[in-house]
Amino acid sequence: MTTPHVFNTTAMLIKMANQIASFFEALPDREEGLRSVYEHIRKFWEPRMRIALLEFLEQYPDGQDGEIGLSAFALEAINNHKADLKPADTKTVPATP
Fold first, then answer.
1. In which element (H, E) is residue 14 found?
2. What is the pTM of this model?
3. Which of 20, 33, 74, 80 could form a disulfide with 27 if both were Cys (CB 3.0 to 4.6 A apart)?
């Protein structure tokens, strides 16, 4: 069972990922937009944020969990680069505080 804090954190991450995707989806080159979403998340999200997002996708591969869900563009961008979003050493960084 998901605790309210974890759900709220996940919902916030999903919202942020969708906002990033919405911005980059406007680029004329679709592949550049997808790559830009991934690059932004990789560069600016701390490892715990990326881990939480990837754990959400492990549990919900379609990116949807009731009221929260990734946009199709965000989901595609993340899935295209899922392996590259994993921090180098996930053993030292706890996924949830």
1. helix 4-25
2. 0.81
3. 33
- Rounded Cα distance between 15 and 47, Å, is 17
CA angle 8/97/74 to nearest 5° reads 50
Are 37 and 21 contacting, i.e. CB atoms less than 8 angstroms apart?
Answer: yes
Cβ burial, residue 14 (10 Å; 0-12/13-18/19+): buried
3-state secondary structure 30-88: HHHHHHHHHHHHHHHCCHHHHHHHHHHHHHCCCCEECCEECCHHHHHHHHHCHHHHCCC
* Type of residue numbered 23: F
Going by C-alpha positions, the residue among 20, 73, 70 that lies closest to residue 45 is 20
pLDDT digits (tens, 9 = 90+) for 9-63: 899 999 999 999 999 999 999 999 999 999 999 999 999 999 999 999 999 999 9
